[in-house]
Structures
1.
Amino acid sequence: MKEVRIWDGPSARSGPPEPELTRRSFLRTGAAAVGGMAALAAALSPLRELALDQAPSMDQFLQKHYKEMTAAEMEAALDRIRKKVEERYDVRPHLRDIKPMEGVEFVYALNLSRCIGCRKCVHACVAENNQSRSPEIQYIRVIEMPRGTLDVEKGDHHYDRPTVPDAAHFYMPVQCHQCANPPCVKVCPVEATWQEPDGVTVIDYDWCIGCRYCEAACPYWARRFNFAQPKLPKEQLNPNMSYLSNRPREKGVMEKCHFCLHRTREGRMPACVEICPTGARKFGNVLDPKSEVSQILKTKRVFVLKEEVGTLPRFFYYFDERYPNSIDPEALAIAQKLREEEGDRYGQLPGAAGPDRAMIAATQPQWWDGRQA
Amino acid sequence: MVGRETGVKTYLTFLWRCFRLSFVGDYRYYAWMFFLTVFILLGVNAYCKQLVQGLATTGMTDQVSWGFFIANFTFLVGMAAAAVMLVIPVYIFRNRELHDLVIFGELFAVAAIVMAMLFVTVDLGRPDRFHHLLLRFNFPVSMLTWDVLVLNGYLLLNLHICGYLVYCAYRKRAPSRLFYIPFVFVAIFWAISIHTVTAFLYSGLGGRPFWNSAVVAPRFLASAFAAGPAFLILTLSVVKRFAGLDVPDKAFLTLRSVVAVALTINMFLLGSEAFTEFYTDSAHVASARYLFLGLHGRSGLVPWIWTAISLNTIALVMLYTPLSRRIGALQVACALLIAGIWIEKGMGMIVPAFVPTPLGEIVEYSPTLNETLVTLGIWAGGLLLYTILVRVTVPVLAGRLTYDQTFAAATGEVTAVGDRSVK
């Protein structure tokens, strides 16, 4: 077969040059151009669905990084957010930018002998911090661990028992460990996340570009991404909020536990500490030698999870040495009382086995197709 | 006539002619471009849906937070770096056969980098905040900022080298060595750096034991230096056949040796990694076990990795036997190993690091239709760009489109061949 050259033959074949523009070629080019534009318009048509209140306003587009804003600029940003919250949720939020306190470094301690695995902390956190309810984003993951190991891979994230605690297991809640050497901060390309002087690693939700590198870097799986526009029913909004903590987020940005800094920087306890029925959770200022956490660090044999990754967590675990082989009897008695008052599944709201099922369902195409309709 | 024109005007005329030239070809050229355009538009459509609905349109979750997009990004950075496997023989070892072909490698690097950047962009949750990179750039701490720098730098280097050489041919000037040789040598080191930095993105994370290995960067380079030249073998044979470019058989055989050696090293490194993981058998082995054998009854990636290993093994055997001295068999071997390495680097390198999660949970990942369409759209866009670059470069370098000819004179034969002689 003769070799056919589609583009240029090596030997110039002299023929009459094509006229620049004939009627026929004009029509042909015109038809192709019109067809192309129509196809492009059709391809772009989903953009019509882009909700106007989700598109960034000019003020938001030009808003500076948290650390670069002057007091007046911050006030303007807060005002913009207040208006938006009011538009969406019909509530005027008590929104402010709360700075860290001098001489405070927050530390968390968790008594594994007292945790009964009721997951009340998980849900109190969601209610406090205005996470998306559908798909539900949770900052705390409680793992049911077999005795004799601290290897999380042997644990069960989706335990779903009529009653907890189970005698053969202990329960290990994990959330952001607020590391002193945080890999998530290191990897962020735009400095949208950083460690505050009081030890809390925070995110500027208006600065995050959503690359999820921090999520890949975290050894404790503490970071969450808004894969879809968060859905939060109006009546469930917590109006007490701050810029760096629980104000409502947009789709496409990261979020995580921030030690409830809108509470703790004003002298209150985090929601998870407050709700814990057994007092397994302890929180406070490690720079104050008389604080409870300072006493625990001094007197208990505390440890951190995955010490070998070297991130220096501010989140400590310990077992009560008095009860090496069982959950603290006092905690068991509290569990018994809860069972009597609230029924078997106390604290375990429907679908409480973790956000994954909702999340996975949410990421299937039929979910967003259905939402469009 | 031309002497009185300003340089800028001549250059703008050149660009305009290149643009017009990209619309000229015969029915097969149009069919190919139409085919690519269909996929580009499907990809644009899918991406618009993603913009509206968020990344929930992908198969990614908080557990497996990077997927197809980042896998393809990684693969393409390697393909871009692989241009250096043509540059080194020519500029350092003075290989004659490859001399006129280097530019096609460099042009492919341009297209591959553009695709890689598009993949990162579509992976962003907030592409509308892209400018934040310019305002607060976490350099040198974040490896991602290194990647932004080296990828853009590599793109500029290759655009300059190719653009300069092509434009010199258009102006019928001999290129001044000072204006491109230094850039060629910088580009050699730069090519290594882009893939090294991309590997460091992953290997620097202590929380992901599967990536936290010093062998990741060498493995990335080896697999790139196999897949890249293999892809060039395929494209050069297409260009030879359809555009009449003179590609000597010795050039293919030189590239064949490069591919064979690189693939051998890649498979050796994969074996070293597997040995270290499985013989040690520590807690770190979980991801590797999930990838190769399945973990706790979940084995979503097992067929992928064994397909990749099989494809690479068959390709390796073919490359080392005289069989692949025939161009047809060589093309088959190249196609197999490109597929093999694409799987190994994507589904076999990016995804398993997320399974199990750092807290031991197993959630599997597979791409959704929408995600796949975006991916195909970017690939189609990159191939379209590469086709145009080659389509313009071939006649200019052959001296058939120069500044002192009319455009019609340069394309007259093209339309003549395209429209009439194919019957």
2.
Amino acid sequence: MAWLKKLAGTAAVVVAGCAVAGWVLSAPVKLDRDTLAQLGPGDAAKGERIFNAGGCTSCHAKPGAKDDERLQLGGGLELKTAFGTFVAPNISQDENDGIGAWSIADFANAMLKGVGPSGENLYPAFPYPSYARMKPSDVADLYVFMQTLPAVSGKAPPHKLGFPFNIRRGVGLWKRLYLSDKPVIEFAAGTPDVVLAGRYLVEGPGHCGECHTPRDAGGGSRKGEWLAGAVAAEGEGIIPNITTGPGGIEDWSAADIASYLETGFTPDFDTVGGAMVDVQENMARLTPDDRAAIAAYLKAIPPHPNGYPARK
Amino acid sequence: MKKLVLAISLLSFAASTAFADTILDRQEYMKERGKLVKQMGQMAKGETDFDAAAVLTALKGLEANAEKFDAEAMFPEGSLEGDTTASPKIWEDFSGFKAAEEKYLDAVKGAVAAPPGDLDALKATMGTIGGECGACHKAYRIKKS
């Protein structure tokens, strides 16, 4: 029976080894010192642009908030997904219930690394896989702008997730697979600046790919079908294909796209609907140049057929 | 057993087609709105010249269209099967759905009562009316494949 003991011993070593490796690999990874140094002091006026491009209010304002209420970021919106129900947290300046006590480094670690102030992994329902592509100085501008917004008391309820998604440590492994600060679409040298500016807005703060790109079994974006449309991860229905492939927006000109983001009207004068209404209202607050850049990028990316199954 | 399968298939077929005409009718109805808004939208975009009389005609057309809206007849219970982008929320909150349509009608009536006299005013009017379109589409329409 010596061989059995030996086998058991080997198995125990393998299991322990895997456990250690898993623990190490799933550990939250924070920003390095160089990146933190690039944050700079921040500029609130510039931060407002980032705030609108990011559409923070869509999830973090109280559901149905209008006008000035939209700047009260008390959270509470529920995102019902296959993984469970995520509840948008309070990100107002309240020191206890919001993020008022966060340092700029805390904020940058959340935005760029998906790590909370206690060193915990944040769930990617908060779209940091997109924000990870943002410039540190833009994150600093956003931080300073958000300090000008009101404190709202009251914590949002916790997420309601089943096993194994309720284990935050697992998100560390997920990040190893899917978190990257590199652009999704590589363009050739000589690509116009307006396209690159659009890439930054769409792939970074605008986080368009989080809804418009289909996800794989692990919940990461399928970058080979970037912006091809997807079954809605939250709620019902589909999110449209916004590439120029079949089923997408081939017949929209760049001016049509920019006009849609400004006014909410499609080229046929149908209107924006669903969750895109809030997004469009935020995009309408950007400058015409920013909307033109987004449009130029969408016309420049690879076309794909619809990233969701056809109706049966 | 075969009969049962046949009966079930027929029933589900019936469910998906029972409201086919209703769905087509209401889509035509909504497209009429789109055509009228397009006449004004092309002016707002600068594709056609601003024409105050044509704007008023289009607004009156929208008003006549909106007054024909009949939520119960156009959105009967169960008419969310088939080729439609109607959200189940319409029937979960029918009074909210009707209220959204009322707000749209009010916006159109307001525009007919004080029609835009220049391009900037037209853009503002488009924003007000379009905002009501979007408010209803946000809550009560879902995209389907």
